Amino acid sequence: MTDLTHIPVSTPNCHESGTPSHRRLGLIGCPIGHSLSPALFREHFASRPDILEHWSYDLIERSTFDEAWKAFLQDYEAVNVTAPFKENAFRAADSHDYSSLRCRASNLLIKTQNEGVKAYNTDFEAVVKILQQELQRTATANTAAEAVEKAGRHKVLVIGCGGAGKAATAAALEAGMQVFLCNRTVSRAQEFAGYLRRYDPYGHGSVTCITETDLLGSGASGLSPELEKDIRSTLPADTWQTAHIKEADIIIYTLPGPSDILTHLLSSTPDIFSDKTLLEANYKDPVLTSVPCRRYISGLTWLHLQALTTYRIAIGR
């Protein structure tokens, strides 16, 4: 299990030269009218009028990334980034911290004096913290070596390989867990898994297996031959890949709505998640809140944790 202190995070140099009369943070994406980010910002700093006097948080909804990027460069000191622009933000930045490099996506862009526009991924740090807390809830290890070994026995299934899915996958590897990655387009998940193997400076390992979210086709199984044979003998050929859910301890669901695999599973096996921890990225229209499970972690928890990291990096608080 990894301590986040090795991840370089610092206040941007452009904040060191004095305090201007007003600074603007924002959120770019489309659509974002539902976002809680401005209200969360005001709530968090409600007891800090000195911050609210000099900082504001706006929604910057644009239909294209180029338009959003132009608005950021013209009027904002830093912006959070949400769907569908996280990968665009990573590519557009001049420099990158470890978290964004690990995810190859960015949800925070900040102007700096010495490094241009710098990309961060606070989703990554939020999910690492959530997973570490989940390990601590069931911890019985007495030494650091035992804690690492215990983390390695946990299996995480990440459903979706968009910006949030990439952050969740990289975070689960960072926490020392085995990771299954499930995505409708297998080639996209395979490409990212290959990248994680190549960019692994701390030796956190690689994705255990890749499969599909639509229950069809032939994604790589990653299962032991004995378990695969047993599953194939007891399940229809088009559903045996659902065994990854049965193997996993933690499910991280990053899709914006119900998927084929979720609809199928909940109709055929309503209690399939009963012994698992569910973490859902979507906080506006969550689809797993009423699903029987061991523990449900809302997208609001994810949102709050990534927001705290944003404030620490962008504002220095």
Largest sheet: 6 strands, mixed
What's the Cα radius of gyration? 20 Å
State the helix count. 13
- Extract low-pLDDT stretches: 1-19, 215-224, 227-240
Estimate the global geometry from the Cα principal axes. Answer: globular
- Helix/strand order: EHHEHEHEHEEHHEHEHEHHEHEEH
> What is the first-to-last residue Cα distance?
26 Å
Strand content: 15-25%
Features:
41% helix; disordered N terminus; 317 residues; 13 helices; 6-stranded mixed β-sheet; alpha/beta; 6-stranded parallel β-sheet
Please give a structural write-up.
- There is one protein chain.
- The protein has a 6-stranded mixed sheet with strand order 2-1-3-5-6-4, sandwiched between helices. Strands 9-8-7-10-11-12 form a 6-stranded parallel sheet.
- By secondary structure, it is α/β, with parallel strands linked by helices.
- 41% of the residues lie in helices and 16% in strands.
